[in-house]
């Protein structure tokens, strides 16, 4: 089976063709980052207009790169939430139009489930159904979740952030340091050779969250990153010459360490209390090499199989959307012909 996937939930316009077994035949990603950089974050109006401009040629390129005709496409999968409303509308409307014109089934995909399925695009994961029970750390620009996956497609959120997402903390930190947008890669680069113990940034342990937590949430597995950025803000105010004095790499290494350490502590707790066959890390922040190394250490300690998304599929892409759609379609549990987008779609509601 061959699926054409479309992704436009934020600032990437992407199309991909994926086959059974998570084999990526083509994957085209156009990133709008340069357009949003002057504003230090994504501007929704600019994002949706750029999707309108780029989507047709991105779809054409995905078909061309795959050397694939429309006859060889079995279905179209498109992200329909969560994300920026106007950006989601462009992708879903494009997918609906193509599905109608080419007479193909249309599958609505949850962007978060797309990230979750990105681990199956790695060559060494041949059977997605064999990895559960699995613990997943989902770390992107907008979300931070610890998810218990007893079987594929059924999700229990064990922990989430009370405030900023891990990626957001890196983006805000980089903004304070005037490093550029999005901040994660800039902090990672600037942290090279720095001393992670230069300053002890908070790990979000002080924030106990609301008195009553929703669902299966466990306080010990929840995150808080807003204090981290505030701590950096005050550090810079109190030490105005720290950059001139040559400590940018130390500061970035310590900041990155705080983000990674906060994530790893909760992963460690969850792995100790659950009986997991494997654990995975997905989303844009999973690109971070320091985090990947720490996760490898935890995998050894807990004797669990670590599943990491291939680097090119950590940040937003359409291959993960196509494969998430394919697995749901084959299992008979896909959302077919979604009537509308859902910018607030959650993983729990999906399961
Ligand atoms: O998954 P993603 O592309 O978009 C969302 O769905 O949010 O994640 C984007 C996030 C940004 O916050 C960015 O700073 C972060 O991923 N990121 C990184 C790295 N590359 C991207 N964070 C840490 N290290 C990186 N190398
Ligand atoms: Zn994403």
Write the layout of secondary structure elements.
Blueprint: E1 2-7, E2 12-19, E3 23-31, H1 33-36, H2 44-66, E4 75-81, H3 85-102, E5 106-110, H4 111-117, E6 134-139, E7 144-151, E8 154-160, H5 166-176, H6 183-190, H7 226-238, H8 248-273, E9 278-282, H9 289-302, E10 305-308, H10 319-331, E11 335-336, H11 347-350
Parallel strand pairs: 1-4, 4-5, 6-9, 9-10
Antiparallel strand pairs: 1-2, 2-3, 5-11, 6-7, 7-8
Helix pairs in contact: 2-3, 4-10, 5-6, 5-7, 5-8, 8-9
The protein binds 5'-O-[(R)-(carboxyoxy)(hydroxy)phosphoryl]adenosine and zinc ion.
Distinct ligands, ions and cofactors found in the model: 5'-O-[(R)-(carboxyoxy)(hydroxy)phosphoryl]adenosine, zinc ion
Name the assembly state: single chain
Mean pLDDT: 95
Q: Which strand order do you get reading across the main beta sheet?
A: 3-2-1-4-5-11
Kindly estimate the percentage of residues that lie in beta strands according to DSSP: 15-25%
Class from helix and strand fractions? alpha/beta
Account of the protein in words:
This protein has 351 residues and is an alpha/beta fold. The protein is built from eleven helices and eleven strands. The protein has helices at residues 33-36, 44-66, 85-102, 111-117, 166-176, 183-190, 226-238, 248-273, 289-302, 319-331, 347-350; strands at 2-7, 12-19, 23-31, 75-81, 106-110, 134-139, 144-151, 154-160, 278-282, 305-308, 335-336. A six-stranded mixed beta sheet has the order 3-2-1-4-5-11, with helices on both faces. It has a five-stranded mixed beta sheet with strand order 8-7-6-9-10, with helices on both faces. A hairpin with a 4-residue loop joins strand 6 (134-139) and strand 7. Helix 2 (44-66) packs parallel to helix 3 (85-102), helix 4 (111-117) packs across helix 10 (319-331) and helix 8 (248-273) packs parallel to helix 9. The radius of gyration is 20 Å and the shape is globular. The two termini are 23 Å apart. The mean pLDDT is 95. The structure holds 5'-O-[(R)-(carboxyoxy)(hydroxy)phosphoryl]adenosine (KG4) and zinc ion (ZN).
């Amino acid at each position: 089976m061959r699926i054409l996937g479309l992704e436009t939930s934020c600032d990437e316009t992407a199309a991909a063709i994926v086959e059974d077994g998570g084999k990526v035949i083509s994957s085209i990603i156009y990133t709008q980052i340069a357009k949003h950089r002057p504003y230090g974050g994504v501007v929704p109006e600019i994002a949706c207009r750029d999707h309108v401009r780029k989507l047709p040629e991105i779809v054409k390129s995905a078909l061309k790169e795959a050397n694939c005709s429309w006859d060889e496409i079995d279905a179209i999968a498109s992200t329909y939430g969560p994300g920026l409303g106007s950006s989601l509308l462009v992708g879903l409307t494009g997918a609906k139009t193509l599905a109608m014109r080419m007479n193909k089934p249309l599958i609505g995909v949850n962007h978060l489930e797309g990230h979750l399925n990105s681990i199956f695009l790695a060559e060494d994961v041949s059977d997605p159904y064999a990895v559960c029970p699995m613990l997943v750390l989902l770390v992107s620009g907008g979300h931070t979740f610890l998810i218990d996956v007893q079987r594929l497609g059924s999700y229990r959120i064990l922990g989430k952030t009370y405030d900023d997402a891990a990626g957001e903390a890196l983006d805000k930190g980089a903004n304070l340091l005037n490093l550029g947008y999005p901040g994660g890669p800039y902090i990672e680069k600037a942290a090279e050779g720095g001393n992670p113990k230069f300053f002890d940034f908070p790990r979000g342990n002080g924030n106990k969250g609301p008195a009553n937590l929703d669902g299966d949430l466990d306080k010990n597995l929840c995150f808080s990153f807003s204090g981290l950025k505030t701590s950096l803000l005050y550090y810079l105010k109190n030490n105005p010459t720290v950059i001139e004095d040559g400590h940018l790499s130390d500061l970035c290494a310590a900041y990155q360490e705080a983000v990674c350490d906060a994530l790893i502590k909760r992963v460690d707790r969850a792995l100790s209390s659950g009986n997991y066959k494997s654990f995975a890390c997905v989303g844009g922040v999973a690109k971070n090499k320091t985090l990947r190394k720490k996760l490898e250490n935890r995998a050894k300690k807990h004797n669990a199989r670590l599943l990491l998304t291939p680097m090119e599929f950590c940040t937003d892409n359409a291959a993960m959307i196509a494969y998430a759609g394919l697995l749901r379609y084959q299992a008979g549990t896909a959302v077919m012909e979604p009537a509308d987008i859902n910018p607030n779609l959650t993983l729990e509601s999906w399961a």
